[in-house]
Design brief:
7-stranded mixed sheet; single chain; 207 residues; 7 strands; alpha/beta; 6 helices; 24% strand
Length: 207
């Protein structure tokens, strides 16, 4: 019987990444049942790993006996002293930009706008950045495994590409001459922070 993992995410993009990566290991991936109805924990850890661990432990209590994987990931920009970092998903909100309750979710758009505003006038050679991802797997409130992945790149002055999510249209990979949003999901998972962290975690879980 194939191993089944539950993931603590409501992000369609992250869920697609998990499922694509898990196919190689014959692992079934599903969201935590009823995730939309479960109160979200406060993500107040000082690092990506701390937040991933906290979420994995918390959500594993809702799926007894099963392995639950949680991630925390984000963008670190050198010219911004590592920001947005663990605040990557809330970068625009921290600046006061939020959608109205009846609007479509434009969080990614707002986050990218704020990032470009903060980097306005910064030359190309100082727009270096990296994506980081920390993953944690827990069962019944105890951590089973953790893993990390990182990829280096640069922030463009304008978005490019229609795939991906988050900051992908602005995150340029010089070695491939493409942004994360330009890559098909297979290539993306072979080079991305989440793909690298997932490959490490799934390989060890599948032993």
């Amino acid at each position: 019987m194939a191993l089944r993992l539950f993931v603590a995410t409501t992000s369609a993009g992250k869920l697609a990444d998990f499922r694509e990566a898990a196919e190689e290991y014959e692992i079934a991936i599903d969201p935590v049942p009823g995730l939309h109805t479960i109160p979200t924990p406060q993500e107040d850890g000082p690092t990506f790993e701390a937040n991933a661990v906290m979420k994995a432990i918390y959500y594993s209590s809702f799926v007894p006996g099963q392995i639950v994987v949680a991630d925390d990931s984000g963008l670190e920009v050198d010219a911004l002293n590592g920001a947005p970092g663990i605040r990557s998903a809330r970068f625009a909100a921290d600046s006061g930009l939020t959608d109205s309750p009846d609007a479509n979710d434009n969080t990614d758009v707002w986050n990218n706008i704020v990032l470009l505003q903060k980097l306005d006038g910064i030359p190309e050679d100082r727009r270096t950045a990296r994506y980081r991802c920390a993953l944690a797997a827990a069962r019944d409130g105890e951590i089973v495994l953790t893993s990390e992945g990182m990829v280096e790149g640069q922030i463009l002055e304008a978005p490019h590409g229609t795939g991906g999510f988050g900051y992908d249209p602005l995150f340029y990979l010089p070695s491939l001459d493409q942004t994360m949003a330009d890559l098909d999901i297979g290539v993306k998972l072979s080079v991305s922070h989440r793909g690298l962290a997932l490959a490490d975690l799934l390989a060890r879980l599948n032993l």
